[in-house]
Specification:
By secondary structure, the protein is α/β, with parallel strands linked by helices. The strands form 2 sheets. Strands 1, 2, 3, 4, 5, 6, 7 and 8 form an 8-stranded mixed β-sheet that branches. Strands 9, 10, 11, 12, 13, 14, 15 and 16 form an 8-stranded mixed β-sheet that branches. The protein contains 21 helices and 16 strands. It starts with a helix and ends in a 17-residue tail after the last helix. A hairpin with a 7-residue loop joins strand 9 and strand 10. The longest helix is centred in the first third of the chain and has 18 residues. The chain folds into 3 domains: 237 residues, 2-enoyl-CoA Hydratase, Chain A, domain 1 (Alpha-Beta Complex); 187 residues, 2-enoyl-CoA Hydratase, Chain A, domain 1; 36 residues, no CATH class. It is elongated, with a radius of gyration of 26 Å. It binds hexanoyl-coenzyme A.
């Protein structure tokens, strides 16, 4: 090989040099190139602009020019499918982003959009390169804009594998899925020192912006994993559910997983009292292909479950109330979580299946004053807006406004199924009886007995699913043993669905 080419290649492979690579490893982190190697099918990486470097001269920058400028970019195959990638190199100026690094990232974002392939960014950076001042900010502007233009066109995934501080965190926030790793990832707008100075609070980097904080508290992280190797394995699994872009159907897979063994769990659940808590995961496991549920936002807003699964190999997006938490009520965070997931599925042609067991929206001053009306409306909006096939199965109960969000035909569900023992109603029988029979109960010689009788009367006359089936709100009432087949047949029959909408620039979802 030509000497110069060999030298240049070596320099670009070395990143910030041996010492800094060792420091990176000592922190339990992989290097930018090692990460790409873990993501890519062997030998598939095509690199772009490995010799591009900073043009800055201020603050001694002429001494810090390293080929690549702190990011490795290009395209790889993941399980044979093309993906574009950027991977920040913390060993070069802390992975900080200046003018040229931004150009490199923007280039692969644009190529991802033009070729209709997913974009994966690996963030490990001290943020805006301070020596490059507003040129850095200008670069972020370009990256954010590209994220926005690509939103809903190609899947965008962010792997936070180091610091991601300040405005830099807004690029991942715009993307579809964010991964974080314990003890490795940190994401915040202002760090512990600034917080201490402004609010007096003492907080560590990890408590403030670590994986757990964002997976549980803020909801900024969709996936929280123990180490980097698990991240790359998980990304592969996630990509298998997604089309390359919004013009392609989601990939159908012959998983060979087959029909799960009936566990009888659904029957058990239905034989219990309407208020008994159970784990909706058991219902999902019984209905969908064995082991196919890939849960998104597992730790955040747990009163709703969202995630991808397969039904006879066809990918679907599931939204499901979780009676184990807050009795499955919809609150501010679970409405946001459900709405965002439904919008992703709709953008990428993934049908939505709703598993319903919901007593209503969450009451309380906290919820009201923090905007349950606005946030709850997001879920309604997302369902009403989505044109993919939407199927609801009412498992145990569907009350009030939450019934509409989770299972209303008129809002836009294409097929609504119910188990025979489910309750579909404007509200629970106790509350309804207290309101409409208030005077009769109060005036009765035995108010307790009369109340009980009125509750039963309401339950029998208004809540059973045949009342809704008679009105056309429920398309069919099915036995639990028929549910998997009924969902699959419904999905198949709706797969050619096309729905057109009034021309508009875009709607105004209540944000
Ligand atoms: C230039 C940077 C840098 C930055 C780190 N480095 N961040 N150089 N600009 N933003 C350099 C360090 O000077 C150091 O170089 C090398 O990278 C490694 O950094 P360390 O501090 O030694 O690493 P570590 O101890 O692991 O700490 C990592 C860190 C810390 C927590 C990220 O570096 C840090 O606090 N950096 C600054 C973060 C920050 O304030 N960023 C700007 C935010 S403003 P040497 O040569 O000394 O080893 C912003 C606005 C964006 O981002 C707005 C966009 C819209």
């Amino acid at each position: 090989m030509d000497d110069r080419l060999g030298q240049m290649r070596n320099r670009s492979q070395e990143g910030g040099g041996e010492e800094r690579v060792a420091a990176q490893h000592a922190k339990g982190k992989l290097t930018a190139r090692e990460r790409i190697a873990m993501l890519a099918d062997p030998g598939s990486f095509i690199e772009y602009n490995p010799y591009m470097t900073s043009r800055a001269v201020e603050f001694g920058m002429e001494r810090h020019r390293l080929p690549g400028d702190g990011v490795v970019t290009g395209t790889v195959l993941v399980d044979g499918r093309q993906v574009w990638v950027s991977s920040q190199d913390f060993t070069v100026l802390g992975g900080s982003l200046g003018e040229q690094q931004a150009e490199k990232i923007a280039r692969v974002q644009e190529l991802a959009l033009q070729t209709g392939c997913p974009f994966i960014q690996i963030n490990d950076s001290g943020g805006a390169r301070i020596q490059e001042g507003v040129y850095s900010l200008d670069g972020y502007g370009k990256i954010f804009r590209n994220n926005i233009l690509a939103s809903g066109v190609i899947p965008q995934i962010s792997l936070i594998l180091g610091p991601c501080a300040g405005g830099a965190a807004y690029s991942p926030a715009i993307t579809d899925f964010v991964y974080m790793v314990d003890g490795v990832s940190q994401m915040y707008i202002t760090g512990p020192d600034v917080i201490k100075a402004v609010t007096g609070e003492d907080v560590t980097h990890e408590d403030l912006g670590g994986a757990s904080a964002h997976a549980r508290k803020s909801g900024n992280a969709h996936f929280h994993l123990a180490d980097e190797a698990s991240v790359f394995a998980h990304v592969r699994r996630l990509l298998a559910y997604l089309p390359a872009n919004n013009r392609q159907p989601a990939p159908v897979e012959d998983t060979g997983a087959g029909t799960p063994q009936p566990t009888g769990k659904i029957g058990e659940i239905l034989s219990g009292r309407a208020t008994k808590a159970y784990d909706m995961h058991d219902v999902i496991d019984e209905l969908f292909d064995a082991g196919s549920f890939l849960e998104v936002h597992k730790e955040y807003a747990p009163s709703i479950l969202v995630g991808f699964a397969r039904l006879e190999g066809r990918p679907v997006g599931i939204i499901a109330n979780q009676p184990k938490f807050l009795s499955g009520t919809l609150d501010i965070n679970s409405s946001d979580k459900g709405a965002r997931f439904v919008r992703f599925c709709d953008a990428f042609n993934i049908p939505v299946i709703s598993l319903v067991d919901v007593p209503g929206y969450m009451p309380g001053t906290n919820q009201e004053w923090n905007g349950i009306i606005r946030h709850g409306a997001k879920l309604l909006y997302a369902i009403g807006e989505a044109t993919v096939p939407k199927i609801a199965l009412i498992v145990r109960k569907a009350y009030g406004g939450a019934y509409i969000a989770m299972s209303s035909r008129t809002l836009g569900y294409d097929r609504v199924l119910s188990f025979p023992t489910a309750e579909v109603a404007v509200m629970g029988a106790e509350g309804a009886a207290n309101i409409i029979f208030r005077k009769e109960i109060a005036g009765a010689s035995d108010p307790v007995a009369v109340r009980g009788q009125k509750i039963e009367e309401f339950r029998e006359n208004s809540m059973n699913p045949f009342v809704s089936a008679a009105g056309g709100m429920v398309d069919d009432v099915i036995a639990p043993g028929e549910a998997r087949q009924a969902l699959f047949r419904s999905l198949e029959s709706l797969s050619g669905k096309r729905e057109s909408r009034p021309q508009k620039k875009h709607g105004n979802i209540p944000l």
